[in-house]
Amino acid sequence: MERWEDALVIEREVYEKSVQMCKLDGYETLASGLNLCSTLVALKKFEEARPFLRKLIGRSRRALGPEHINTLRLRRAYAEAFFSDDAASAGELREAVTTLEELDALARRVYGEGHAYRLNIYASLKTARKKLAGVENVRETPPPAGAPVQRTF
After folding, report:
1. Most buried of 59, 71, 94, 134, CB within 10 angstroms?
2. Residue 153's pLDDT is what?
């Protein structure tokens, strides 16, 4: 049984305690922020997750470095917050694909071709590319002239 709303309440509390007890850019605070963002994305609270992820990514790059696995995880979560959003624009999906392409290349170099997390990034990249292709295909192929308009209510 999934209890994402309950998890969200707990993860907000854990994050707030981490901020109080640890540094804002401490490992524990960044890890609890990642957990919180993962739940926000699972609950489709993309408008809250994306700006929070941008802040966490900047802190993680400074504190842990751009190649640290948690920095990569935050960047992947940021991309996921776009490609999981049915309302994402083609531009946002392109940004997600570009981010995942960068992460895939970085993970290959740092962790190796067969590393489990690199394979997760690649799976996300395939999903994002598929979604982008669908959005671009829909926008590039207008209905034929005189075609009846279908309405969904």
Report:
1. 71
2. 40
Q: What is the pTM of this model?
A: 0.84
Q: What is the pLDDT of residues 75-127, one digit of tens each?
A: 999 999 999 999 999 999 999 999 999 999 999 999 999 999 999 999 999 99
Tokens 């997390």 correspond to what residue?
117
Beta-carbon contacts of residue 4 (< 8 Å; ≥ 6 apart): 39, 42, 43
Cβ contact 92:49 at 8 Å? no
Contact criterion met (CB below 8 Å) for 71 and 60: yes
